[in-house]
Amino acid sequence: MSSYTDYIVGSPLVDTAAPDGPIETRWERRRFGVKLVNPANKRKMKIIVVGTGLAGASAGATLAELGYQVSSFCYQDSPRRAHSIAAQGGINAAKNYRGDGDSIHRLFYDTVKGGDFRSRESNVHRLAEISVQIIDQCVAQGVPFAREYGGLLDTRSFGGAQVSRTFYARGQTGQQLLLGAYQALERQIDAGRVTMYPRHEMLELIVIDGRARGIVARDLVTGETRSHLADAVVLASGGYGNVFYLSTNAKGCNVTATWRAHRKGAYFANPCFTQIHPTCIPVSGDHQSKLTLMSESLRNDGRVWVPVKAGDTRAPADIPESERDYFLERQYPAFGNLVPRDIASRAAKNVCDAGRGVGPGGLGVYLDFADAIARLGRQAVAAKYGNLFQMYQRITGDDPYEVPMRIYPAVHYTMGGLWVDYDLQSTIPGLFVIGEANFSDHGANRLGASALMQGLADGYFVLPTTIGDYLARGVPSVAEDAPEVREAEAAVAARIEKLLSIDGNRTVDSFHRELGRLMWDHCGMERTEEGLRKALDRIPELRREFWTNVKVPGSAATLNQSLEKAGRVADFLELAELMCLDALHRTESCGGHFRAESQTEDGEAARKDDEFSYVAAWEFTGEGSPPVLHREDLHFEYVTPSQRSYK
Amino acid sequence: MRLNLRIWRQSGPDDEGRLVAYRVDDADEDMSFLELIDVLNEKLILDGEEPVAFDHDCREGICGACSMVINGEPHGPEKATTTCQLHLRHFRDGDTITVEPFRAAAFPVIKDLVVDRSAFDRIIASGGYISAPTGAAPEAHSTPVPKANADRAFTAAACIGCGACVAACPNGSASLFLGAKITHLGELPQGQPERADRVVRMVETHDAEGFGGCTNTGECAVACPKEIPLDVISQLNRDYLAATTQRR
User: Looking at chain B, which residue has its C-alpha nearest residue A289?
Assistant: First the structure.
């Protein structure tokens, strides 16, 4: 067998669904170009939606409103608990309510630039156009956005933006947007147009005659696995940040749905593009089970600093102004504390690596609100950030009104995901991928408050339009007992039986922690060829050990949370290898992907546009066997790639 | 620190269930309560026993999945705190802690500490929304909302749907949950057209799901990790009365 790192370069990938012509009219022309489904036929067509976060819930509700029969799946006990609920900061929209120079074009420009010129112009422009409709839609649903005394919507500026375009609902914007989408979904459930399958997990994709035709799902309560067939399948199953074990994702977030689809032929794009969020609560000990984000909206008023001297262990109040280094303000005077996430994270890592970090283990920097409290008053600060301060105090025992917060970067979001065309269709016809699960709009780095925007743009507005074009062209019927269906069911059953029969000496979590540590060390904030090769040597060994020494107690015929975790970690053990290979092959630094070998003289990321201005879409060829790389070249007609500068 | 645990074990809906004693010797005061159960479960698995099943997901106090009764209180002793945000620094070395599932007729136990709260989804499905199909929305600024109403709507909308209010209520009533949604949508101009129908349908569903009636004990608001104020129940009653008298 050839080595995994000897990947093969396959044919280039072209997005055939993408319209050309003036960028402002591309989406409009695509919408006009799609074939429409006769309303009477919609009632007969079935669509499966996996995941009920912002993308999945909004898509499920909208497809049902259009008249399709929808089956919606989530692993949680209720669709309302999907992890979009935890997004704090806000949602961007080019409303220009402030008259501060914002426009669709500016949001488009900022997003392409923020993504470090590794995203598609057409997709990003569409996203910026739709952003304004999202706010209208959410307000109509009763989402309680923050308002000013005149009764109009309030906005704030947010990481990486110099205009005030972020709409918010205190520090719980994701919760309120998700509840809006969830309520719309529940309305359709009540109307009988959506069948909801909570506590169900997709374990396999069913592909018949080259088309996605259904899924095999396990009922997590009864343990029953069975197939569900449909005319099209939509994956809205979120990102894969939990490959790092410690991340800000919910404990249940996993890659299984997208990875199973990848194994069945869907290309996985830019897996190494992961986002490390600068403002998280530092790790407190080995028992740590997850990391908690503190919204980066805090950076609007909080000032980030560390002591000037390395090894300074004085209490923060005892360190005079002259001995504090407000390193973001010093290094990036134009943007200061509001530089994009990748830059803020690496700057924090650098000062900690230099021995100037604070708190236990020296892995932390201060985020200080003393100036903001003096300027605005405690009450005004509490109105903006009260719940975040409370959350911080609950976890750490420190009061941020009195003592500066301690923060450190943590894995937060994955820009990579399944490759999709302009219609959000993967390389498997009939398989659509939306929200964080796809790779499409954020390039190598996502701007703050853009995840909620993308999830809802995909789910409410893009997918419901483009999926019709696929369905209108006719999808042949399939038999419930087609051999492909039986094979997929048998594969799931065999895998479950295998996991339960190993009966080794290590728990699933112990493998997950080891994998996570390996990925954080070698495929985290800074990547080197040496480190990545080390990880690529170790991951297959760890995977082999998992499959011979994991211990999964209990049976498959009941609620078995160890079994659920085992299946997810098994898939992470495969994904991790692809992430490291992708990071190894991309010998440039861009966005969240920093290769130590590719930096400027003053330590900033050095992009190599001549070599790497493409999307890396990987084709699966078998476990541990070298994948095929398909490159989709990126073209920039409206934004000229430049070295990002926030100085 | 060392902690003694008495945890409710129940293999399935038909099992009677019982409290089983465990001990964790290497707990740390910076651990969350769920991390304590993680540590216990890792030991149980290696000892060949089934780990304790419990619901959890975001572990940052917002998804509403975690649902334990700790020493008789839903989500434990700390005010305005979910179980996942409860840290062991609030307990003492050597303490004995009793952990049970949320108990209510409308929340049947599935296994150990996991209960079925799908009745909440059915209450929302019966009217807890504003009918605004995608694409039909007017420009957002065409409907100003006074800040006071928007703020009250937000306070009520902060409900995470965990069910602590039901577990705390001697009657097993979900009036706080229901009142929170009635208040959220009723405070907004967008929520007015469906206001009367909404409250009638949601109350009917609430009662049909087996939740009890409200007798104003106020236990729900004390247990609520998001501090949903008790006056949302007054709002619920006012709206219900108005809707039912109008209907006649």
Answer: B35
- Predicted confidence (pLDDT) at residue A316 exceeds the cutoff of 70: yes
Of B51, B118, B134, the CB nearest to A460: B134
- SS (HEC) of A454-484: HHHHHHHHHHHHHHHHHHHCCCCCCCCCCHH
Size of interface A-B (CB pairs under 8 A): 215
Residue A1 in this model has a pLDDT that exceeds 60: no
Q: Residues 132-151, chain A: which have Cβ within 8 Å of B?
A: 133, 135-137, 139-142, 144-151
B11: which chain A residues are within 8 Å (Cβ-Cβ)?
558
Contact call for B145 and A151, based on CB within 8 A = yes
Beta bridge partners of A367: A304, A405
CB A598 within 8 A of CB A605: yes
Task: Name the percent of chain B lying above pLDDT 70.
Answer: 99
Catalytic residue selected from A170, A341, A406, A607: A341
pLDDT for B83-126, tens place per residue?
999 999 999 999 999 999 999 999 999 999 999 999 999 999 99
- pTM for this one? 0.97
Neighbours of B16 (CB within 10 A): 6
pLDDT at B173: 98
The mean of the pLDDT values for chain B is 97
Using pLDDT thresholds of 50, 70 and 90, give the confidence band for residue A385. confident
A341 catalytically annotated: yes
CA distances from B67 to A77, A87, B55, B124, B163 (A): 12, 21, 7, 19, 8
A410 near B CB under 8 A: no
Q: What are the tens digits of pLDDT across the range A43-64?
A: 999 999 999 999 999 999 999 9
Please check whether residue B121 touches A, CB under 8 A: yes
When CB atoms are compared, the residue of B34, B117, B137 closest to A289 is: B34
Which fold, B3-111?
Ubiquitin-like (UB roll) (3.10.20)
Query: Coil, strand, or helix at residue A212?
Result: strand
CA-to-CA distance for A388 and B65, rounded, in angstroms? Answer: 20
Residue B247: per-residue pLDDT: 59
Mean pLDDT of chain A: 96
Residues A416 and A119: their CA atoms lie apart, in Å, by: 11
- Fold for A483-613, please state it: Methane Monooxygenase Hydroxylase; Chain G, domain 1 (1.20.58)
The answer to whether A562 and B44 are in contact (CB under 8 A) is: no
Say how far apart CA A105 and CA B107 lie, in whole Å: 51
Dihedral sign of CA atoms A113, A115, A120, A126 in order: negative
What's the number of CA atoms in the CB half-sphere (13 Å) around residue A75? Answer: 26
Superfamily of domain B117-130+145-247: Alpha-helical ferredoxin (1.10.1060.10)
Residue with tokens 């262990």: A313
The CATH architecture of the domain made up of A277-412 is Alpha-Beta Complex (3.90)
Q: Is A194 on the interface with B (CB under 8 A)?
A: no
List chain B domain ranges.
3-111, 117-130+145-247
User: What local confidence, expressed as pLDDT, does residue B12 receive?
Assistant: 96
Q: Does A460 touch chain B (CB under 8 A)?
A: yes
* pLDDT at residue B11 is higher than 80: yes
**Residue range A569-590: mean pLDDT, rounded:** 98
pLDDT value of residue A161:
79
Q: How many CA atoms lie within 13 A of A567 on its CB side?
A: 26
Tell me if A586 sits within 8 A of A416, measured CB to CB. no
Sketch the domain layout of chain A as residue ranges: 277-412, 483-613
Task: Using the predicted structure, report yes or no on whether residue A387 has a pLDDT greater than 70.
Answer: yes
